[in-house]
Design brief:
55% of the residues lie in helices and 15% in strands. By secondary structure, it is α+β, with helices and mostly antiparallel strands.
Length: 550
């Protein structure tokens, strides 16, 4: 690598580092993500009805409920509101002796849960210094008072409503972007599948992989709460939360089965039946047994466990089959993606089970794992596709090249005459016919005759270039020059004769220079052929070997 290339790379590196630094500062060093929640935070210092001081972020209310209270500031801005997020919780809010609002979740298609709702209550001047009292109760019939239940209250703030919305959305921005990235991978993979004309030649079922990514990405995006916080709509999204993960099972199996060598259709039928059973079981548990979808986690866990076990069995069987039959399969990208996804999922599960903030990721580790997996599968397709294209290009080169000499063949010449420099109007055209080939073949053998052909072709390639020389027959060649000067063209012809003499080879040449299309191409070929034939006649005069004109 020369110094100039190194200097250019340094400039590129400086540019990239500068862009990253500016973006990093804008996102993490300014008010985009800092200061807002701390400045408006009003979650600490709440007193329970039994005298304990707690933070609203630590409340996990059960069916028994909990009452908390706190005194409002003596003064606040005119546009301030008491804002928080209610998560599967019913509540009553009072300021002083006045009950301001009461919310009770109504049963819906999924049960009593509703997910998250943003709540905002304007603070009028007469509320200054008064006590806010909130009675909280989980919408689920689970046990627990304030630490063991499933009802939560989050992001308690005193601030303008718009500021609170910004705090909520910025806090979920990374999760949303990762989810959208998963959807992007899905759309990209599906688009590639649609664009490829021969689906049967694909390395794996990209339609199934793309659908899998889109469904998982949508599920992850809904889990961020982004749409719920913006629109205030929760029920339809909550239904999708429980349904999408079940719908992922079938395309996942179709993809993995297509990735194997065996590709057993029986596996697809079994998995479709299992998916149908899982989907039906959810409806039976909800509408026949009356179980809230919130409490169907055992069903989902069992379903996912069966799917993962089934997929592992399919992959292990395929690996063993390949090993037994000495079939080499490049699984690097799949294995890398699967390991990243498994590791990130393990961290996520540990976070959920232990509820330790030190490893809490709000689902982002799972999203990162999915992004890695779909990225690796996209890379595997691109590497395969580039290899396929390289193979096609090689076949094209073989179809247009003369394998003995390395020149173009008659087919390549015909294509070149349609699209090459001949159409530009000014060019040099050379016909070449090897002298004495028949005698060499008869006396010295065909190997010597092949060597003669290769030597003449090599001389022509040295003078005119590998893309401008074509072999039309056994001993007949054509060369094209893109020079715009007749003197330069004739100099190339003389150079060719000199190289042939150096190798003690002989050939008859017919050279024609065309300027500004002053001669029709068919006429050019006739004139060059006649000149070449006349030269060949002179070569054979007085010799016993004669050459019959074609």
């Amino acid at each position: 690598m020369n110094n100039k290339s190194i200097n250019i790379q340094i400039l590129h590196a400086i540019y990239c580092i500068t862009v990253i630094a500016i973006l990093g500062y804008a996102v993490f060093g300014t008010d985009l993500t800092q200061g807002g929640s701390k400045r408006y935070d009003w979650s600490r210092g709440w007193e329970t009805d039994d005298g304990r001081i707690i933070s609203t972020d630590d409340i996990r209310a059960g069916a028994e409920g909990i009452t908390i209270s706190k005194e409002l500031p003596d003064a606040f801005n005119a546009d301030d509101s008491l804002c928080f997020v209610a998560d599967n919780i019913s509540f009553t809010l009072s300021i002083g002796d006045d009950e301001i609002y009461s919310f009770t979740s109504e049963e819906n298609l999924t049960g009593k849960g509703y997910g998250i709702l943003r709540q905002s209550f304007p603070l009028h001047p007469q509320y200054a210094g008064k006590v806010v009292t909130i009675t909280l109760r989980s919408v689920f019939d689970d046990s627990g008072r304030d630490t063991d239940g499933d009802g939560q209250i989050q992001n308690m703030c005193i601030c303008p409503e718009k500021a609170h919305t910004a705090i909520l959305l910025l806090g979920r921005l990374l999760s949303a972007l990762l989810s959208l990235l998963i959807i992007f991978f899905g759309v990209l993979l599906s688009g590639i599948y649609i664009a490829v004309p021969r689906k049967d030649l694909l390395l794996f079922n990209m339609a199934a992989l793309g659908l899998m990514a889109i469904l998982l990405g949508l599920w992850c995006f809904i889990q961020t709460g982004f749409i719920q916080l913006i629109t205030g709509r929760t029920i339809g999204l909550r239904i999708l939360t429980y349904v999408l993960v079940i719908f992922v099972e079938y395309p996942t199996l179709v993809f993995v089965n297509s990735y194997t060598i065996l590709k057993k259709s029986a596996y697809t039928k079994i998995m479709f039946a299992f998916w149908l059973m899982s989907f039906a079981s959810l409806f039976v548990m909800r509408f026949t047994l009356g179980i809230d979808c919130h409490n169907t986690l055992p069903l989902f866990s069992f379903s996912y466990g069966v799917v993962l076990f089934f997929l592992a069995c399919i992959l292990i069987e395929d690996i063993m089959y390949c090993k037994a039959n000495n079939i080499t399969r490049n699984r690097k990208h799949f294995v890398t993606g699967a390991i990243c996804f498994t590791a990130c999922s393990a961290v996520e599960i540990l976070s959920y089970v232990t509820k330790e903030k030190i490893i809490s990721s709000n689902g982002n580790m799972l999203r990162i794992g999915l992004c890695f997996f779909f990225f690796e599968m996209l890379m595997q397709f691109l590497y395969w596709w580039s290899g396929e294209q390289e193979g096609k290009e090689q076949l094209i080169r073989i179809g247009f090249n003369d394998l003995m000499t390395g020149t173009g063949n008659r087919r390549a010449f015909e294509e070149f005459s349609k699209t090459g420099i001949i159409r530009d109007g000014t060019y040099g055209y050379l016909m070449c016919d090897i002298n004495g080939l028949k005698q060499v073949n008869d006396v010295e053998g065909h190997d010597a005759g092949d060597a003669l052909i290769k030597d003449v072709a090599s001389c022509m390639l040295e003078v005119f270039g590998e893309k401008k020389v074509f072999r039309l027959g056994g001993d007949e060649f054509v060369a094209i020059s893109d020079t715009d000067n007749e003197g330069s063209f004739q100099s190339m012809v003389r150079d060719l004769r000199g190289k042939l003499d150096e190798r003690k080879r002989s050939a008859s040449l017919g050279a024609v220079f065309v300027e500004n299309n002053n001669m029709d191409f068919r006429e050019v070929r006739k004139v060059a052929d006649k000149l070449m034939y006349d030269e060949k006649e002179r070569f054979y005069q007085g010799r016993h070997e004669r050459r019959r004109r074609r």
